[in-house]
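Appendix C reproduces, verbatim, an entry submitted by the partner laboratory led by Prof. M.T., so that reviewers can inspect both the input and the predicted structure.
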Amino acid sequence: MCGRYAITLPPEAVRSYFAYEETPNFPPRFNIAPTQPIPVVVADPFSEGVRRHFKLMRWGFVPGFVKDPKQFPLLINARAEAIAEKASFRPALMRRRGLVIADGFYEWLKEGGGRSAAKRPYLIRRIDDEPMGFAGLYETWSDPTGGEIDTACIVTTAANALVGLLHDRMPAILPPESFAAWLDADAVDAAKAVALLKPAPEEALELVEVGPRVNHYANDDAEVQAPVAAPIRSLMRETLI
């Protein structure tokens, strides 16, 4: 799963990477947690071609059929293998696919067994320091009074060999050449969109062990990502354990 991630690159660098039209001054976020607002790139359904827009949404997907979100589980992730069959996600897969903007995410390595097992946090980021476009789904939920809230989740896939040292799942990180196909729900059907969801190449990523400050979502500053050991890459796998 993906339960915590970060966006720290300059806004213009992110805008250039995702090619959306707006110029938001989104502040760096080092420790984004569920229920918080997250930036999502969406396609304009009323334009010719696939014009892209920046929108803020609540991290926690609420399907349209839900009557009371407080009585519904918090859906922060959706498994790529199941989104075409799940009633919660199928309509969004067909019509409301987005890109969740990120440049790193966190996982924890468990040491020992039981509830008291120690957990070492790691930041997973690209070796080339570029942003990440997580495949996402979004839905606008309406309450009985007509109020609306845009909600989103991150689609996950099986972990690659490197991330698999920490967890068996990872966000589906789309390469830039797949952005248009994922966003274009008119030209690309659900089956072809799901086929885009694959583990990122392990040689593109590195694991950076960080300190325990990331464990508390209220800690949202650069110190959260301060490394406590050298980065771990695919050719250095034996140094993790």
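The helical segments are 11-18, 90-95, 179-183, 190-194. Additional entries are available on request from the coordinating office.
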